[in-house]
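Input for the complex:
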Amino acid sequence: MFRYYLKLGLLGIRQNPILSGLMVAAIAIGIGACMTMVTIHYVMSGDPIPQKSDQLFYVQLDSWSPTEPADEPNEPPDQVTYLDATALLKAGNARRQVVSYRSGRVIEPAGQESRPFEIDARSTTSDFFAMFSVPFLYGSGWDASADANREQVVVLDRATNERLFGGENSVGERIVMNGDSYRVTGVLDEWLPIPKFYDLTTGEFNDPESVYFPFSVSIDKEIPGHGNTNCWKPVPDGGWQSFLNSECVWMQFWVELHGDEEVREYQAFLDAYAESQKALGRFQRPLNNRLSDVMTHLENGEVVDQSVRILLVLAVLFLVVCLLNTIGLLLAKVMRRSGDICLRRALGAPRAAVFSQYIVEAGVIGLCGGALGVLLTWLGLQGVRGLYSDLEFVKNLAQLDWVMVLTAVVLAILSALGAALYPTWQACRIHPASQLKTL
Amino acid sequence: MELGPIWRALTRNKAGYILIALQIAVTMAIIVNAIAIIQERSRLMARPSGVDEENLFYLANVTFKKDTNIPAMVDEDLANLRAMPGVVDAIFTNSVPLRNGGWSMGLATEPGEGTESSGVAVYFVDEHGIDTFGVKLVAGRNFLPEEVDWNDPESSRWPPTGIITRAMADTLFPDEGDGVVGKTVYINDDNPVQIVGILERLQAPWNGWDGVERSMFVPLKREMSYGRYVIRTEPGQRDRVIPAVEKMLADSNRDRIIKDTRTMTETRIRSYLGDAALVKLLSFIVIVLTVITGLGIVGLASFSVSRRTRQIGTRRALGATRGAILRYFMLENFLISSVGIALGGILAVALNMWMVETFELTRIAWYLIPLAMAMLWIVGQLAVAGPARRASMVPPAVATRAI
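Predicted:
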């Protein structure tokens, strides 16, 4: 029976090619516009580290000025001070803890003909790689003793290893950065967390850094951060050392905790730490320390751009218009064929049969619209890439995956069926005798 | 008029007409709000930065050797740059407007900890700052060469003089006008800075900041291992000067990297890329939506004409002119559109109120609603014109024929 209805449906579509084409086009354009924005929103608001996102916590301590909050209405600063980061690191009360900040380094390749080049670097501690599940191609990160002994070791990302060593296993080789020699302990495999959750202050969708080296070395060599540095209190005279001891926030601190119990304990530890600092005259604001898991941290950081949310709302409304259009056209189509329907009903077809026939026809239109809609979504994403072609990271956002293709098709069929319900119901209601006399 | 009979005919067969009216209403809500956002973003994009954008470019100077004498290198570079043909002037600084990365401080009118201060973007310049950026000094004077010096890395004192923008002056001292020149403000709690000049306009590096017009020139050359040369060229010479400057800098000293050369024109485009893209996407939505709604009207009108062919024939046979038939369908569409547009006006305002609440957008300008109404009326009449003309061509003889 289904195949027969399918045949009838195709016949119906062929009978009214313009009207049917208009319906398919309306569904396709609606789906295309809607899914383009849904895809971008989906990628932007995705979970960058699904297996661990509820075990990693971003630490914020309210060390800000007694007279005003770091951010309205009463937000703690979005990064931590050197004093607090090193104190928490030393306490070591979580399963893992990592401090890091972004900087810039100049690599001087061996050989006279190759010129020095500048790269983004991350100064961090040994747990970084295990904590954020960073994949390695060769070797590994450094261990805690390298942090303690200020060993000049470095981890390269895949592209930098390609550039310096032609992609060979470079573990044990040495590179020169800003005049100092570092030993390579590992090379990363492709790694592109979207968003770049571990540091939202230097561009939420930028690529990860090219090299990673010990935090202790970086502090020793007085390497300033390339991200935001915010201070509520002037830094006194005295250069680097007094900057380290200042109330400026400029680094990120993450901990790994398993289960609510550990989270509660760590929160209690943070509050106790803040109290101990109050005794020293710091932390003059009421207790306001935060532990946010990855998804909460991304939400707080407003990673999804406002324009994307506006466009998403308008795109959904756009789809509504396209569907209203389709409902109107389907209704017109059904009414035009009320003669056929009356004839079938008069010959004994039950309402259910008429219903099935028109629903199948609408489903076919939905499928065609969906297929075309996926194509338009792809085109739409290319268009968005084109519009933002100067921003490197957009290529990572404007990407279709199978989940989204499937969503588009399902959404198209559901839309078409939903749009078909009312007209089909109208078709069923047509009384067998009403139109027969005009035939 | 035939409004009465047309309206009664409409109410006999509601569903299709309600659908098209709803479609017009939602279309109008989207169009009005999209145009409001387009207006808002275009207004943001049209703000001038205050600098001579056409003739400015800048590049980063990155030093990496431990023993590099940055002051000596920069002073030599600046002397060379200023002597190049086609170059008007050049400085070594930390940022430029629209670059979205820079340095900000707070200025207060009273010394001391915890006094209320206003944020200000800081540009470190020498006495060539005004000339290089091409900004206009409207009161006071420029820095004197002896006021500008290299900083001491161990000290966090600020130079005792500064030049601020008109917007910053008005923020600190409302209603004082040019009287702000000579006044003292405080930076870093108790570090006094005397204002020696006022600039007409110079934007901060962050175009999304609500204090984007508040900037300050500080007479200081900082020993930055990552600094920028900003270079202003003679009109029309920029693209010729850029490669010459890059070559001169790269060849004169190999202990540094010259990178990220960028003109102010490119900087403006990058800075407003998101806004420009949003404007384009929304314009696209407005156009496609209007076309779809127009096509929907065409489809439904064609259907209603073909369904009423015999009635039309009967009317024609009873003496109705072609014009009367044409007028009937045009009026019918006008009535449907009016219902949709009225509903659309309400929806547009509701959607806008929700967007204002959720996305902190500005309210729509009142005239957008009548504008969108007129537009949709015209679209409706244009869309129905074809089917209505076809209806008017139906010959009276149809009435006598069985279909």
